[in-house]
Amino acid sequence: MISRVATRRILEERDDVVTICLPLFLAGGQEERDFAKDNPCIAVDGCDKMCAAKGVQMYGKVHPKSSIIISEIAEKHKHLKPKSKSRIEPQDEKLVRETMKRITEEIDKAEEEEE
Amino acid sequence: MSEKKKSKYIIIPCSGIGKALGTITRRATYIVTEEMVPNETDSICLPLLTIEDEETARKIRENPCITVDGCIAQCAKKNVEHHQGKLKGSIKILDVIKENPKLKPGTVLDIGPDGEKLARKAAEKTVKIMGDKS
Q: Among A75-84, B89-98, B125-134, which stretch is predicted with the lowest mean pLDDT?
């Protein structure tokens, strides 16, 4: 839920970012698969199984530009584990904001490299 | 004496991030698996199936599955079919909206009261499929 909310909020804040549904890599066509190959990707994963990062490699045939793992952010900053799978509770906001900060840093870094 | 483990229905939402419909699939799944029939159901993380996780693939092959998809791409259904899962039924939130045209879902981040009602209706349809198949 944290990866979802943080990613979506970034998407609504900026006009230079898009997102893709990970399962669409398999369900969609070549267009979806080329999308990851043709654009710098930042994988935002909830746990260390890293489905997003692995999905980009499997279907886009490229390593993501960077990979963010929220469970590591939570551990590093001593955030409490989110209790609800369906909604963000007030105590989860810190972790959402920290994740958004990391995503923003990675986008800015990728843009600098592109220039 | 060995006891055969009873299979559970695996409810699989697409969890699409592009539209509120994806959030409704997640909510509908949790209504089924945490509120309505927690002892008879379970769920999986669809991206784990997409990246060919063996344990997840085995789970959908050994248990009956019901997919809950937001849009016409039907990612959950297609991923289960691709991995030869035991697909017993599929729900499309678009159909639930057509059946309840007065309910207007909110946004991806907040599906709103109408979105919650749509999720509950999708959850009821899911449980009905379970009843019809058992």
A: A75-84
Pick the residue from chain B with its C-alpha nearest to A11. Answer: B18
Mean pLDDT of B106-129: 96
Q: How many CB atoms lie within 10 A of CB A30?
A: 8
Who's near B26: CB < 8 A, 6+ residues apart? Answer: A85, A86, B13, B15
pTM for the model stands at 0.90
Assembly ipTM: 0.84
The reply to whether residue A8 touches residue B74, judged by beta carbons under 8 angstroms, is: no
B78 in A contact zone (CB under 8 Å):
yes
Q: Which residues pair with B13 in a beta bridge?
A: B68
Sign of CA dihedral B104, B106, B110, B113: negative
Write down how long chain A is.
115
With beta carbons less than 8 A apart as the criterion, state whether A43 and A102 touch: no
pLDDT, greater one: A74 or B99: B99
* Residue B75 to residue A55, Cβ atoms within 8 A: no
Distance, in Å, from the CA atom of B114 to the CA atom of B111, rounded to the nearest integer, reads 7
